[in-house]
Write a structure and sequence with these properties.
single chain, about 130 residues, mainly alpha, Arc Repressor Mutant, subunit A, three-stranded antiparallel β-sheet, elongated
Length: about 130
């Protein structure tokens, strides 16, 4: 049966997962920060060991200092990253995954790997879709 108002458009920019039931709001909140693209890339970089802010910024590429700092603070607040400050001049700060953060490595690495492997397929699908519109 066709829709009399035409095809239904799906918001292409943001798909927000809604979880129902006990703890749904907390799960949604956790998914919001875990599914952030910068979070995935930072977790993947820290999986290789402790890094300084500048090392993370160089390794990730394309991330501003402000966004990197905000994301690291969020990860620290949520218990995924530990920040160590050394009392030297100039101050030295290192970031490492906590045991909780390590539990995300395999999952997020799989997602990032999938995205890298299938980007050409996604781009072809977008071009096909956009050309038909």
């Amino acid at each position: 049966m066709s829709n009399p108002r035409g095809p239904r458009r799906v918001n292409e920019h943001r798909f927000k997962l809604r979880l129902v039931g006990a703890g749904g709001r907390q799960q949604e909140s956790a998914l919001d920060f875990i599914s952030d693209k910068w979070t995935s890339l930072i977790i993947r970089e820290l999986a290789g060991g402790t890094k300084r802010h500048s090392q993370l910024q160089r390794a990730i590429g394309g991330i501003s200092q402000k966004i990197l700092t905000q994301t690291l603070r969020t990860l620290e607040r949520n218990g995924l990253v530990e920040r160590t400050i050394y009392p030297v001049v100039p101050p030295m700060v290192e970031y490492a995954l906590t045991p909780l953060g390590v539990t995300l490595v395999e999952v997020l690495t799989s997602v990032v790997t999938w995205a890298e492997e299938h980007l050409p397929d996604v781009e072809r699908a977008r071009a096909k879709h956009d050309g038909a519109a």
